[in-house]
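Title: [Solved] ATP-binding protein 3D structure

Original question kept below for reference.
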Amino acid sequence: MEEKGTLYFLCGKMGAGKSTMAKQMAAEQRAVLLSEDEWLSTLYPNQIHTFEDYQKHARLLKPLIESHVQQLLRLGMHVVMDFPANTKSSRSWFLQLSEHAGANHRLIYLNRSDEQCLRQIQKRRISEPGRAAFDTEEVFHHVTSFFEAPDDTEHLHIIEK
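Solution (posted by the thread starter after getting help):
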């Protein structure tokens, strides 16, 4: 019987370290890494200036990659998606991706305090000046207002880190 891949996806507030963890997971699991930030900046250069712009373009991106991810999983490849799984709705989409491919999944939950995230965002503003306009405390609080921690009712394989 052919082995299916595993879909890894991440949940955590802005600044929790999702992208860093995604890169680490991809290396550890010898997995394909798909980064939402990279896809968005390539497909929609200079078009994302607000959180609403991000939401609009992120919605456009999902149908584009669904079949691609499912095909990789069916081929037995592991896939790490550096896309936020920060709401029940978004996590449901990841779960459907893996189920439709007959693959396993793992949700990596980076449970960090607001203070930890804000410290990391401040460091990122310095190391990545291009993100400084978006990486603000105001944006953090706005984005965090949508955050929903995962729970057992979602039937996910959760790994808390």
